[in-house]
Amino acid sequence: MEKLSKRYAQDFGPLARKYGVIGTPAQCLEQLGRFAEAGCTYFILDAICDPATEAEQIEMMAAELVSKFKAS
User: Fold this and answer.
1) Which of 20, 44, 55, 64 allows an S-S link to 25, with CB 3.0 to 4.6 Å?
2) 8 Å CB contact between 68 and 32
3) What is the pLDDT confidence band of residue 71, given thresholds at 50, 70 and 90?
4) How many domains does the chain have?
5) Count of CB atoms situated within 10 Å of the CB of 26
């Protein structure tokens, strides 16, 4: 959220929490589940982080979110 807030010079916290998937892997899975229950069938996952940790974040999403979400 800090990166988006900086980029657009405003507090993106409330919007990110309402429409984004943010938190630990378990919290993110729970949030994705709520979107799916509401009828969402398509997700775009993107790491909004320092470029230095982007690959690590994407790998974490694949390992901790995508595979587990598909299984449920």
Assistant:
1) 64
2) no
3) low
4) 1
5) 11
pTM of the model: 0.70
* pLDDT, position 68: 79
Mean pLDDT across 61-66: 87
User: Are the C-beta atoms of 33 and 43 separated by less than 8 Å?
Assistant: no
d(CA 64, CA 12): 25
Q: Distance (Å, rounded) from C-alpha 59 to C-alpha 47?
A: 10
Query: By residue range, what is the domain housing residue 46?
Result: 2-71
Largest CA distance in the chain: 39
Read off the tokens for 66. Answer: 């995508």
Backbone φ, ψ for residue 48 (5° rounding): -105, 95
